[in-house]
């Protein structure tokens, strides 16, 4: 069964331990110009998880909330559907994994993702796409992702997706402080990272206009022809090149005959 993580945003204190654990486990760099925590952190090719400090309101009073963001590992990942090279694949345990040796650099995954997660290594000579892998090696062994295991306030709960979804429903039903919405339960067909909050998600920067229909249902009907289009286009260009080369050769031979 698919694993998942429940994130209770009411418990997060913004310490950033999860971002450090992510970098250490995945051997990602700490970048001075791209902080992973604060009011304006950004997901980058080195920041696979970030914690954003959000000043908002609750019951008419200003409050701070801290939002952990990473790949949501969709139940039906649009990135995998859009990738004709199969560089993105979803495992049985839940993580959506990126295989760099299969990537052709088309970046369709970046266009397909409704949450703007995959990032490109623009400054590298041989760039790749990067994103959170949900510590797939640990998850495959039944262990929690690195970020989950280091959280000092138990913001995140790791387990079977069905079980943590049931826990999320029980939590928001038993405590009136929570908004009656589980983010990730239905967004984009459902995700393996789900969130509960006491502040409306749109106030915290979450995209709330995402369809509940799995995105591959929209794309599969025409993206399956992409390899044939590429092969056909390549053949056409090759044919045009050979035709032009042949014409130039004939023109040069005719020019020589005229001078003779």
Would you summarize the structure shown here?
Helices cover 33% and strands 17% of the residues.
Mean pLDDT over the residues: 90
| Number of strand elements | 10
Strand order, biggest sheet? Answer: 9-1-10
pLDDT below 50 for ≥5 consecutive residues: which ranges? none
Radius of gyration: 24 Å
What is the succession of H and E elements? EHEEEHEEHEEHHEHEHH
Number of helices: 8
Might you state the CATH topology name of the largest domain?
Answer: Alpha-Beta Plaits
- For the record, the CATH architecture of the largest domain stands as 2-Layer Sandwich
Helix residue percentage: 25-40%
- The class by helix and strand makeup works out as alpha/beta
Strand content: 15-25%
Oligomer designation: single chain
Q: According to CATH, what is the class of the largest domain?
A: Alpha Beta
Head-to-tail CA distance between termini: 80 Å
Q: Overall 3D geometry?
A: elongated
Largest sheet: 3 strands, mixed
Number of domains: 2
């Amino acid at each position: 069964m698919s694993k998942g993580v429940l994130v209770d945003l009411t418990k997060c204190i913004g310490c950033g331990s999860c971002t450090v654990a992510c970098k250490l486990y995945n051997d990602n760099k700490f970048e001075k110009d791209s902080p992973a925590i604060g009011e304006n952190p950004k997901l980058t090719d080195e920041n696979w998880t970030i914690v954003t400090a959000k000043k908002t309101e609750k019951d008419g009073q200003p409050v701070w909330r801290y939002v952990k963001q990473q790949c949501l590992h969709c139940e039906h990942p649009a990135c995998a559907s859009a990738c004709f090279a199969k560089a993105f694949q979803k495992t049985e345990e839940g993580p959506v994994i990126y295989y760099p040796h299969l990537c052709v650099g088309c970046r369709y995954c970046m266009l397909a993702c409704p949450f703007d997660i995959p990032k490109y290594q623009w400054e590298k000579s041989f760039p790749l796409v990067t994103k959170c892998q949900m510590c797939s090696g640990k998850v495959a062994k039944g262990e929690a992702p690195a970020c989950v295991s280091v959280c000092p306030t138990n913001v995140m709960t790791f387990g079977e997706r069905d079980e943590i979804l049931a826990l999320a429903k029980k939590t928001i039903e038993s405590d009136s402080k929570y908004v009656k919405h589980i983010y990730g339960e239905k967004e984009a067909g459902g995700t393996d990272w789900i969130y509960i909050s006491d502040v409306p998600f749109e106030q915290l920067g979450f995209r709330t206009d995402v369809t509940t229909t799995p995105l591959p249902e929209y794309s599969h009907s025409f993206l399956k022809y992409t390899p044939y289009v590429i092969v056909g286009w390549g053949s056409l260009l090759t044919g045009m090149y050979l035709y032009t080369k042949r014409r130039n050769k004939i023109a040069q031979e005719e020019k020589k005959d005229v001078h003779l």
